[in-house]
Every structure is written in C-alpha cells, then in structure tokens.
Amino acid sequence: MVDVFEQVEEELRSDRYKRLARTWLPVVGGILLVALIAALAWWGYQSWETSRADKGSIAYERGLESLQSNNPVGADAAFTQAAKEGNGAYKALALMQRAGIALDANRVPEAIAFLDDAAKANRDPLIADAAAVKAAWLAMDTASLEDIQARLEPLTGDKRPFRDFAKEALAMAMAQHGKAAEAKDMLTVLKSGLDTPQIISQRSELLIAAIDSGSAANLKAITDQMARAPIAPQAPPAAPAAAPARP
C-alpha cells in the first residue's frame, strides 16, 4: 500500500514539474533570447563606434598635418571627412577646426554655423560648451542681446566647465548693448571669484576699468579679439584627438 501511495505521489510531482516547465521554460527562454540579442547589439554598437573613431582619427590627423603644411583647402577636406565618418567627439572637433578655417577666411556666419553644429554633435561639455561659447563670441556683433543670452546662460551653471568664460562673454554682450552697470556687476564677481581662472580675473579688471573710464563705448574691437582667441579650459579636455581643436 505504501508503494502505491509513493507511486501516485511521484506521478503527481512529475505532472507538477511538467506544468511548471511548460509555464516557465518559454519565459526563461525568452529572457535569455532578449539578453543575447541585447549583448550582441551592444557588442555591434561598440564595434561600430570603435570603427567610426578610427576613421575619424585618421582623417582628423590628416587635417592637422595639412594645417601645419599651410594647406587650408586640404585641411578642410580632411576635417569634412572626419566630421562625416567619425564618432561624435571627432565630428565635434572636426567641425570646430572647420570653423577655424572659415574664420581665417573671414567667413564668420559659416564659422558660427560650424560651431553650433559642433556643440550639438557631442555630449561632452568640455567639447560642446567650448564650441558654444566660441559661437556666442562670433555672433556678438550681429545678434541681439536676447540671442546671446539664450546661447550663454545655459552654460553658466555651476557644473558647466566653461561657466566663467560664458559669464565673461555675457557681461561683454551686456556692455555692448548699453547695460554697463549689469556688465560691471558680473565682471566684479568674476574678478574676485576664488575659482575664476586668472586670465579671466585679469581681463575682468581691465574691462571694469574700461567701463568706468567710458572707453568701452565701442567694444567691437574687444569682441573681435575675444572671438578669435582660444578658450583656455577650466579642466583638462577629454578629447580623443592628438591635438586640441583650434577655435
């Protein structure tokens, strides 16, 4: 009799396992399949990104070599290829180089467009914000104060790497549009800021003196000079290129 009960219990247990298997094996199999697809997709994406970075690096280096050889036409062609074939970082850096070439040829609107595209091409603020600040300087003589504020104010947050450069440019835009008192207030804060880069502290002091003396009535020469000056980063840029971007 005991053997009969044990046999019945074993059959019931076997049926229960079969039902569990029929219920859960498709679910487990589906999860494993999704995980496999995700892993393969990630591997494929990483391989694609690596390939794009390699292509961008080769074209970008060729562009730098052309610049060093005083061949802006060849450099622009190489940077165009780097922007087209490279990953986000190389695309941004190549567009910044193209902006520098356009600026050297006095094609300012074209340079601004390249910098705007560079700021959108990469999420790294060390690259994107540098391009955005540079574009604002170039646009300062032709754009409205509202446009310049829209460009610069998002870059002035505490965690933005070029916040002090953006604040300096914003103060200059205010001074240029007749808001000397507001500009002086911003420059005073920058001049005395403990974390303000020394170069900006020095420039702020000179600009405050210019505003006080009334010699800042015509700021076009100053803004032109700043638009063509390189931006010194507040932190080492994490750019993948062997040399920093020109603008």
Give the class from helix and strand content and strand pairing: mainly alpha
Oligomer: single chain
Distance between the termini: 92 Å
Uncertain residue ranges: 232-247
Percent of residues in helices: over 70%
Gyration radius (Cα, Å) is 29 Å
* Biggest sheet record: none
Element pattern in H and E: HHHHHHHHHH
Features:
disordered C terminus, mainly alpha, 2 domains, 10 helices, 247 residues, single chain
What's a concise summary of this model?
It is built from ten helices and no strands. It is mainly alpha-helical and 247 residues long. It has two domains: 36-123; 126-234.
What does this structure look like?
This is Ancillary SecYEG translocon subunit/Cell division coordinator CpoB TPR domain-containing protein. InterPro entries: SecYEG/CpoB_TPR. Pfam families: TPR_21. The chain crosses the membrane at residues 23-45. Residues 26-185 form the Ancillary SecYEG translocon subunit/Cell division coordinator CpoB TPR domain. With 247 residues, the protein is mostly helical. The chain has 2 domains: 36-123; 126-234. Helix content is 76%, strand content 0%. α2 (72-85) runs antiparallel to α3 (88-104) and α5 runs antiparallel to α10 (220-228). The longest helix is centred in the first third of the chain and has 67 residues, at 2-68. Mean pLDDT is 78; it is low at 232-247.
